[in-house]
């Protein structure tokens, strides 16, 4: 009986630690939405033949502007797995990473309201194989996200002058 209990505890510890190794589960929901958007785009692209999973974040920016609105910037890597493209269950146990293909370097910037991606301004998404990413492309990504005007109206309200 004690051997069975020990086996059960060990199996639970292995499953728990395997789940903890999936960095996607550690992301807040509003960052997961951007990763999901990138994965959706990759899966719909005819030229992409692999299934990808989130590997890690490189840079994140989150500006909360009130009323449940956030402006997000997320730079991250996606890594190909051994699973077929379009696989629904992409757990680390079922779809282990493969090391013979390049990472996808992705940048997304978007606005959320009530944790849903807003259509306006249009979300920006750019993914490219890491070896193909140039400094000019990195600069273009940053400039595009900086140009996206996110005006919640607060500065305008503060600029209003009351009549004397």
Q: Radius of gyration, rounded?
A: 20 Å
Helix content: 25-40%
Mean pLDDT: 82
Specify the biggest β-sheet. Answer: 5 strands, antiparallel
- Listing every helix as H and every strand as E from the N terminus to the C terminus, the arrangement reads HHEEEEEHH
What class do helices, strands and sheet pairing give? alpha+beta
Strand content: 25-35%
Low-confidence stretches: 3-19, 154-162
How many DSSP-defined strands? 5
Count the DSSP helices: 4
Based on CA inertia axes, which overall geometry fits? globular
**N-to-C terminal Cα separation, in Å?**
85 Å
What are the salient characteristics of this protein?
alpha+beta, 164 residues, globular, disordered C terminus, disordered N terminus, 5 strands
Topology:
Layout: H1 2-20, H2 29-44, E1 50-66, E2 69-84, E3 104-113, E4 116-117, E5 124-129, H3 135-147, H4 154-159
Antiparallel strand pairs: 1-2, 2-3, 3-4, 3-5
Description:
- This protein has 164 residues and is an alpha+beta fold.
- It has 4 helices and 5 strands, in the order ααβββββαα.
- Helices cover 33% and strands 31% of the residues.
- Strands 1, 2, 3, 4 and 5 form a 5-stranded antiparallel sheet that branches.
Would you kindly provide a brief summary of this structure?
This protein is an alpha+beta fold and 164 residues long. Helices cover 33% and strands 31% of the residues. The protein has helices at 2-20, 29-44, 135-147, 154-159, and strands spanning 50-66, 69-84, 104-113, 116-117, 124-129.
């Amino acid at each position: 009986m004690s051997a069975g209990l020990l086996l059960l505890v060990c199996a639970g510890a292995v499953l728990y630690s395997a789940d903890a190794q999936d960095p996607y589960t550690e992301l807040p929901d509003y960052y997961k939405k951007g990763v999901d958007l990138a994965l959706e785009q990759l899966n719909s692209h005819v030229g992409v033949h692999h299934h990808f999973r989130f590997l890690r974040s490189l840079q994140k920016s989150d500006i909360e502007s009130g009323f449940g609105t956030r402006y997000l910037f997320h730079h991250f890597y996606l890594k190909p797995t051994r699973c077929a493209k379009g696989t629904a269950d992409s757990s680390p146990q079922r779809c282990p990473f493969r090391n013979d293909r390049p990472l996808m370097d992705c940048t997304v910037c978007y606005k959320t309201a009530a944790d849903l991606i807003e259509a306006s301004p249009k979300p920006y998404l750019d993914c490219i194989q890491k070896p193909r990413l140039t400094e000019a492309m990195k600069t273009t990504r940053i400039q595009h996200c900086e140009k996206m005007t996110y005006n919640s109206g607060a500065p305008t309200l503060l600029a209003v002058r009351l009549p004397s």
